Amino acid sequence: MRYHSHRLSVAPMMDWTDRHCRMFHRQLSARALLYTEMVTAPAVIHGDRDRLLGFDAGEHPVALQLGGSDPGQLAEAARIGADHGYEEINLNVGCPSDRVQSGCFGAVLMERPALVADCVAAMIAAAPVEVTVKCRIGVDDQRPETVLPDFIAQVSAAGVRRFAIHARKAWLQGLSPRENREVPPLDYPLVGKMKAAFPALHISVNGGIASLKEAEAFLAAGLDGVMVGRAAYHDPHAILGAADEVIFGGPPGPDRAAVVERMRPYIARHLEAGGRLHQITRHMLGLFHGQPGARGWRRVLSERANLSGAGLEVLDAALAEVGRAAA
What we know:
alpha/beta
């Protein structure tokens, strides 16, 4: 994949990493790998594919995350995703929500590694792009130090070469999806042990990583990649704006004002097509996080971007708040 983009990626996040979020993130980093929200295999097969899978060519490199547990459905969905131009198809074995449990996909599949192996084997046979897995270290009362290496061994034997491991258990009973992102303790050393145990595999670590300094430390310790979630969304410039230089050894990223300018043509096209300003700017609220004028930027966009007829003048007004505060 171009630029070794898997060294740093933005985690798939439901309701957040839609096509507009990804386009915004791409203005900050040319190299980080971006993921879609999870889309279920049946939805891909039977749903509105343009709405579910459509993306702008400017988002590359971009990967599609699928949810499901039926090998035939996942194979068909993977083929469709590859045909739409995604450079990677990722299988979700980490989401702990009630909905995925009832559908037998997501984190509950940590209990069924043989089924996951069947699924990825079918996906690999059907899709001409790389198939990867995002998983937890275990669920409920499983012993991660036993379960995780067995899971990786079975799934890699089916052909998967790249794993992103959220370094927490998922508690399928007793914790909400939000609590499952924060309450179970992180076990980064176990992820490091997986890299030592499977040196030929690409192992990325995910979960609780809040800065590029932390990401650098994981890479220096021998892990192949780092997947950042909420920190990249809430403070995107601190993570993605510096990533091309710090993680990939490229030129510095654009400043915040330049990112806004880069987004203007995309926003204009979206508005001309009948879209709403808020659909894009809701993902941009954290751009000036920690900077003078950040509160005014958020206030203007939050109050005015969802109004009927809101256009680029709202973006200009929000940017003016930043300018006044910095003067």
